[in-house]
Each structure stands twice: as structure tokens, then as C-alpha cells.
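Q: Entry one of two.
A:
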Amino acid sequence: MVVTFSAILIAMMALFRPLQKNRFYVLHAALVILAAYYVEHHFFRAPIFAYKTILLFLVFHLISINFVTIIAYWRDKKAAIAGEWRVPEIDLHMLELLGGWCGAFLAQKIFHHKTKKKSFRAMFWLMLFFQVILIWFILKTLHII
């Protein structure tokens, strides 16, 4: 399971170049791999790239990416208040694109951050729209809906 999760996360980093410099993505990858290691050594071993392993990866990925997205927004808000170096918007958008939009939406409400900048909000809602369309297409292709 650790091998599968690591392969997927490294492949995502290779495909999306902005992830290579995104510290929060590295944190996300570490959390997912640690969760896989824990489950593999304490509960069960799943075959590499098996259906069950991929579904478990998706669960760990979504939980972790949303948690890390909230941390990224918190860090950016803290830096904005202190006048320090900010988290690049591309990093925040990449976390949203990878499934952290729920955490981003929650963080925007909790920290009152990135709620006024229209270009940022437009990109956020555009990515959310495309993700919903993509999920609908996948579910339709798999004959689930």
C-alpha cells in the first residue's frame, strides 16, 4: 500500500509542475504515506494497485488534502497579518484542484481570507465547477449514475 500511494503521489508531482515547489503538497504526501504505513502494518495488507488500495488512497487523499489546505490558508492569513512572505496563489489553487476545495471553502469562511479578491474567487469557483463536471463524467462513464 505504501508503494502504491508513493507512486501515485510522485506521479502527480511529476505531472503538475507547480506541485514540485509546493511545501503543502509535500506535507500532504507525507501524511498520506504515513497513514498508508500505519494501516498496512497494523490492520491489513492490500495488493499493489488493487481496487481496495485505490479506494483507500482516495479516502486518505481527500482527508489529508483538505486538512493541508486549511493549514495553507491559515499560514497565508497569518503571513498577511504579519506582513511576511505569503503563500503563492498557485499553491492554494493547486491544493484546491487536487480536491481540497472543501477545506479551502471552510478556511475562507473561518479565517475570512481570500474572500474579497475577485480574481481568486473566480478561479476558485471555476475549478470547483470543473471538478463537479469531471466527477459527474467519471460516475457516468462507470455507469454509477
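Q: Entry two of two.
A:
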Amino acid sequence: MMMTDVLDKLKALQDILAEKNGIEAAIADAPTLLSTQEELLSRMKKGYIEKNELYEKARLRLSELKTQLFEAESAREKSEKAMDSITTQREYEALDKEIREASDKEQFVRKEIQKEERIFSDLDNELKSEEALIKQQEEELNERKQKQAEEINAMKASLNKLVKAEQDVSPGIEAETKFKLERIIKSKQGVGIVAIHGNVCTGCHMILPAQFANEVRIGDKIVYCPYCSRILYYLESDEGEHSYYNDDEAGSLADLEDILDDDDDTEDPDDSDPDFDDSKMDYED
């Protein structure tokens, strides 16, 4: 197979792999898109439970106060009826004291009941409001989950088509070259094969040695950029080759090792990828 045909296949494979990687990432990230809403709903339910506990305590407190009020009223009424049968001043003073104490307690309990009823009413309204909001959030979350499931199914269908397209375009591409391209695409945001204009790599915009760039222009083998590791192919500029090509700046292949050794500030873009084998990036397939 002609090298130009191989490069055309690699370009087509690059597009397929980049789209495939994007879909796979979208499928992997899909569950996290709803996590924020699920967390919010969980906090709302927790708050609802805590408030419902306060509501129950207020209801019990209100019930106890009404019982105390009934007892105070009964004690007062009993003492008032006993007034009709007293015969001595001492009995009168004792009953009068009981009536006053019962009345005071009755007034105090009535105030407590009014206060507790306001708290109870506020909690009741808040619970009803939160219950409605929780129901709404649950419905929205379920709708989004259903929509997301449909989107994931659609993405999986697209992924299956891309896998088939990958299988169709792969024949004629050596396994090692395909493996390298896949690794480069993942580490270079979907761009694994780029042109050189003159002697400039359009992937990393580094100036390549003249002899090295000439090997790319000849196009009889797979060549990798020594700086960004992308596969290179030659593309003449509309402005002419000399707008990019500069023999003085380019140097030679013999200079390339010195350039890389001397440039301590240049970070190998693939050092961060533990699976990427720089030893295999030898400019030849």
C-alpha cells in the first residue's frame, strides 16, 4: 500500500477515534451530571425528616399543654363550686388560694398553647411546602434520568457504528502504528496526525531540522514529531514553501539530539502518560 494511502487511512482513523473517545467519555461522565441534583434532593429529604421530628415534638407538646389546661380549668371550677359549701374563713382563704393558683396556671398554659400553636402551624406549612418541592424534584430527576438513559442508548448506538467504521478503515495500518495513534489521540485532545508547513510542525509549532522535515516531504515512511510525538505529513503552504521553510533555523538531524539535550525547559508532552512508550517513537514504522 502506498504511504499516501496509509496516511489517508490514518487521517480517517483519527477522526473516528477522536469521536469515539468523546462518546466514551460522555457515557462515562453521564452519571455525574445528575449527582448534584441527587445530592440536593437527598439534603432536602434529610431536612424534611428533621423538621418532621420537630413537628411531632410540637404536636406532643401541644397535646400535653391542652391536658394541663383541662386540669387547671377543672381544678378552678371544682374550687369555685366548693365555695358554696364553706363555713369558715379559713376554708374560704384556702379555696381562694386554690382558685387563684389554678387561674394563674390556666392563663400561663393558654399563653404556652398559643405560642406552641404558632410553632406547630409554621412547621406544618413548611412541611407541606417542602413535601411538594421534594415531589417536584423527584419528578424532574426521574425525567432527567429517563432522558439521560435515552441519550446514552443513542450514544452507544453511535459508538457501535464508529467501532464498525474503525474495523473497516484499519486494514492496511500496522498494529503498532494504530496503537501509537490511539495513545497520541488520547493525550493530544483528539489530534494525532498533523501537517508540517515547510519545516514547522503545526501540532506543536516547533521548527524541525531540515533533513528531518525533508523525510516527511519524501513521505516513504511514518514519521513522528520529536517534540509532540504526533504523526507528521507534508502539506505545502498556500503562500509557498519558503514562507515556512528556513534552512538556517532548521539545522540538520545531527543537530536534533543537541537541541533536545540543551532545551532543559522543554517538557516532553508524553512524560505525563505512563503508558506511552517514547522508545517506540523512532520516526519509522
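A: Comment on entry two: The chain has two domains: 3-22+174-263+276-280, 34-167. Residues 239-285 have pLDDT under 50 and may be disordered.
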